[in-house]
Amino acid sequence: MSRSRFALAVVASLSAGALLSPPPVLSAENRAFRMGFTPFVFDMTLEAVAETDKFIGENGDIVAQHMESVPWSEALSGAPLHPEFMKDWERRKKMARPGMAVYVAVSPLDMGRAKIAAYRGEKEGMPLPPQFEGKELDDDLVKRAYLAYCRRAVEYFKPEFLGIGIEVNELFHNSPGKWPSYVALHKYVYEALKKDHPALMVFSSFTLHNMVNPGWKDRAEMLEAYKGLMPYNDLVALSFYPFMCGISNPSKLDEPLAWLTANFDSLGKPYAVAETGEATENITLKTGAAEVTIYGSLELQKAYYEKLLELAQEKKFKFVVSFLHRDYDALWEKIKSASPSFFIAWRDCGLLDENGQKRPAYEVWRRFLAMPLAR
């Protein structure tokens, strides 16, 4: 999700009957993968935060803590994190109910996936401290600070899964000259963390929708570059929003998933969905003088979750994380005047609509969640 997690920053997160076709036949075997959400909230109210936390606990067995920006100065010096940042960490830590796994995702890249991440102090997206200005990702100062931050996150959250880079393939596209420096940083952090915690699954994620996006002319080179990073990834972890590669027909959903397995099965590493979602309404965005239409429908969302979760069962994914649980219309109305227009793109990807009503895709989710988890 290459944009600010603006909801987290703000708070501290056809008829259905006509679309519900007979469910696919699931085997009686245990569910192979965990299922969960991020704590992205749909409104800037305490009630929305509480409802989000409750939903996460009742509708999954993994919680994803997805955090942008880096406390560079505190990580380097070992000083305490800003009190507001610690409040956020404390809320996040309380979400994990007994038996739930924890997935933590951090990133040394900015939200545009083009350069070093901004500073996290009181809030995300703050200017870099002077000692980090102009530094490359493989600078010794950056490497030491980022490793220290990852270690602090592991110590605090005690996750089973740790993402040390979010949608990193986009750096290759946006700033190809910086890719080698990211690889050096990633390898340095990965090797140190695996030495500390051999059982911890450490990895970065990539955007499947842009790996198959015909508008990205460097996608073949991007794929090879990312594959070069795979010796230092314990999982094949994808971020996937089908509407972002122009899919408007359920019959086309198989194509990117087939591309995924054709290109990564041979590596013999487990898959995971680090974040995902599918639109339920068409939205037209203005990008300069041009207009771009995002296609979505209840039928498309339902079909996507059926295909994705069936593949996750077949291939024994480690986990599937839906980024949103509920549409954020209420939040959008409050922040749209100060936000980039493209932030609306994910507004209608919830398994619940803006009023909290369950969509057909929610019933698909619950059907898979009801399967006993393999241990």
Structural features, described:
- This protein is α/β, with parallel strands linked by helices.
- It has 14 helices and ten strands.
- It has helices spanning 6-11, 16-19, 46-58, 72-77, 83-95, 140-157, 169-174, 179-196, 208-211, 219-229, 254-264, 298-315, 329-335, 360-369, and strands at 34-37, 62-66, 101-105, 161-165, 201-207, 236-240, 271-276, 283-287, 290-294, 319-322.
- Residues 3-25 have low confidence and may be disordered.
Using brief descriptors, characterize the structure shown.
375 residues, alpha/beta, TIM Barrel, 10 strands
In angstroms, what separates the terminal alpha carbons? 30 Å
Across the major sheet, the strand order is: 1-2-3-4-5-6-7-10
**CATH architecture level-2 label of the domain at 61-234:** Alpha-Beta Barrel
| Count of DSSP strands | 10
Mass-distribution shape = globular
Q: SSE order in H/E notation?
A: HHEHEHHEHEHHEHHEHEEEHEHH
Which structural class fits the helix and strand makeup?
alpha/beta
Largest sheet: 8 strands, parallel, barrel
CATH fold title of the domain at 61-234: TIM Barrel
Radius of gyration over all CA atoms, rounded: 20 Å
Q: Give the overall average pLDDT.
A: 92
Runs in which pLDDT lies below 50 for 5 or more consecutive residues are 3-25
User: At the first level of CATH, what is the class of the domain at 61-234?
Assistant: Alpha Beta
User: CATH-wise, what's the superfamily of the domain at 61-234?
Assistant: Glycosidases
Q: Roughly what percent helix?
A: 25-40%
